[in-house]
Write a structure and sequence with these properties.
single chain, alpha+beta, PH-domain like, four-stranded antiparallel beta sheet, four-stranded mixed beta sheet, 4 helices, 34% helix
């Protein structure tokens, strides 16, 4: 099988456009509705993590090559040998997000970071092409 690589950069046009729209809405609250500046500043605090990610251009991703599944996000990283993975578990949550865990032969479960994952349907196909079993669980709370 040929190597698979997926990388997500936080300095994406979509993220920048969302930040511009949010700041424009906050500015319009002050200009059009004469909102209190401290209230608008309090609302703007929620955008600081996204603004920091855009400023530092952090990235996350994963790769499957040389018989290993590797992932990274920020300064954290991890790797698993494909041979020690019993199956991959895809859990769909009530908010429709998909969590992915590697269930190992030893019984241990390693959850992959959400920000490092490619679109789940594409990732499921890649894992199947690697010969790994994929199990889906829909709407699990825990």
């Amino acid at each position: 099988m040929e190597p698979y690589r997926f990388v997500r950069h936080n300095r994406a046009p979509r993220t920048v456009a969302i930040l511009i729209a949010v700041y424009a809405a906050l500015a319009s609250l002050i200009i059009l509705f004469d909102a209190a500046w401290w209230l608008v500043a309090l609302l703007a605090l929620a955008t600081l993590p996204a603004l920091w990610d855009v400023f530092t251009d952090t990235s996350a991703g994963l790769s499957i090559e040389d018989g290993e599944l590797r992932w990274f996000t920020g300064k954290r990283s991890g790797r698993l040998a494909l041979g020690e993975i019993e199956h991959m578990r895809f859990d769909t949550r009530w908010d429709l997000s998909v969590r992915v865990s590697a269930c190992l032969d030893s019984g241990k479960r390693v959850r992959l970071p959400d920000e490092a994952l490619p679109p789940h349907r594409q990732f499921e196909q890649v894992l199947s092409d690697c010969g790994l079993n994929v199990i889906r669980h829909h709407f699990r709370v825990f």
